[in-house]
Amino acid sequence: MNYFYYPGCSLEGTAREYNLSTRSLMAALGAELMEIDGWACCGASAAHAESELLSWVLPARTLALAEKMGRERRENLDILVPCSACYLNLKKVSETARFDAGLLKKINTVLEEDGLIFENRLKVRHLLDVLTRDVDISDIEHRIHNRFTGFAMAPYYGCQCLRPYPVFDDPEKPVSMEKLIRLAGAAVHPWEMGGRCCGASHMTTHPETGRTLVSKILRAAREADAIVTVCPMCQMNLEGFQHKITKSGHDMPLVTILYLPQFLGMAMGLPEEDIRLDLNLSVTHDFRKKYQSLAAVLPSGARNSA
Amino acid sequence: MSPTAAHTVASVKEMIQACIQCGTCTGSCPNAFAMDHTPRQLWQMVMSGETRDVLSSETFILCSSCYYCTLRCPRGLPLTDAMAALTRLAKIEHPGAFKKSRVFYRQFLESVRRHGRVNESELMALFFLEMKNPVLPFQYAGMGIQFLRRKKISLPFSGKKGSGDRTDGLEKIFKKVRELENQA
């Protein structure tokens, strides 16, 4: 169970804790992640807005670099991507080029300049896909040392790991995260917001619209102990503007927002320096207190036994 | 309207010509409440050739690419992609109206060309410099301080970050893309 790994730009900066916890979690589950040598930005929404061709070429270049690694190692691995926006950009060029030979040719005309060739041979996989379909559930189960008993977690999937390509979950009513939450000993917070949009870049370009979308999601999580995310954009929108949203007159509670591998890592007793809750922008006092009382009843030594 | 613009509008019209005006897109859109025309109305305007009104609409700018409409469209039309195509076109036709996002995206891609990856603090610094709006940085200051305190970003121009020796190749790729697009 090894993967080529594409962290993407956010995971090297503002979503550092998502990178650390993903690497640590996958290592604990026995998977080796090989970072794609020389990877570049997937184009985000910027390439798309400026040049259609560039929006195909940038993600294709990274896929071509992964294929090159595969040739050198004589081993074709799937590409693991934790960021939903990067995942969609890589996945989209792969899916589109499969049925559009003209596009594939055009991409390669450009990549040739960099001595690369894109053959479209590798599969692009989201972290949540890998955790729910490749990892054996018992592998996680017997590593849970720190059960989140009495916690209700709200699974938040966002958009781009679900749509437009329904690969591993129902794009209308996603459920894949629920079994992971239950494995960790927590209850699943019942809500309808799991696949709703966080507004993406609206928070900077159309803040009032963005705040409306985010406050709806946070309000629906009022009874939950935390929201669990699988995308740095969703995470930032949900955690980064809570005070501003309250100040602008929207009625909503402060909510703890965690990345899925942070939450699973805490349940598995992975070391603090791999989880880095101190990097999150919204972890409430109540959540910390409840979590500490949970950790206090742990049998001695359990925290590092993963 | 430039010949390129006419061509783009025609290609968007082709993308959505099987639209039956059922309104599933509007009913699925999380941003419809903030739009001047609902998605269904916009597609009707595209089909009846009201190009000027289409391009002055705010509808596609408010698309957050959630892909609900694309997923649910009973005709299977690539509606999110059509929104993106209109956004690209409107930015060319009305450059003044989109100055902020144009400058932001251009600096973003400059950062990618230079480093292979986005250097967030350098990007914001260059964005503020080019916008020449003294109030603008303060809108982002709160978030910036939170990130700096957690060492999630570094001060602009204080260090290198990127994919190292491979940026030469990126330079060539950006050049080739420009060359091919100018030919088209």
Descriptive notes:
The complex is a heterodimer of chains A (306) and B (184). Chain A is 47% helix and 9% strand. Chain A is globular. In chain A, helix 8 (176-183) links the parallel strand 5 (152-155) and strand 6. Chain A is an alpha/beta fold and 306 residues long. Chain A has a 4-stranded parallel sheet with strand order 2-1-3-4, sandwiched between helices. A 4-stranded parallel sheet of chain A has the order 6-5-7-8. Chain B has 184 residues and is an all-alpha fold. In chain B, 61% of the residues lie in helices and 0% in strands. Chain B has helices at residues 3-16, 24-28, 39-47, 51-55, 68-72, 79-93, 99-115, 120-131, 136-149, 167-183. In chain B, helix 7 (99-115) crosses helix 8 and helix 7 packs across helix 10 (167-183). The mean pLDDT of chain B is 89.
Key terms:
heterodimer, A: alpha/beta, four-stranded parallel β-sheet, B: 184 residues, mainly alpha, globular
Percent in strands of chain A: 5-15%
Largest sheet of chain B: none
Please give the radius of gyration of chain B in angstroms: 20 Å
Number of helices of chain A: 15
Question: Using only CA atoms, what is the Rg of chain A?
Answer: 20 Å
Helix-residue proportion of chain B = 55-70%
* Quaternary structure type: heterodimer
Round the mean pLDDT of chain A to the nearest integer and report it: 94
Pick out the low-confidence regions of chain A.
300-306
Instruction: Identify the most extensive interface between protein chains.
Output: A-B, 57 and 54 residues
Please mark out the parts of chain B with pLDDT under 50 across 5 or more consecutive residues, or reply none: none
Strand content of chain B: under 5%
Cα distance spanning the termini of chain A: 18 Å
**What about the largest sheet of chain A?**
4 strands, parallel
Instruction: Report the principal-axis shape of chain B.
Output: globular
**How much helix, percentage-wise, in residues of chain A?**
40-55%
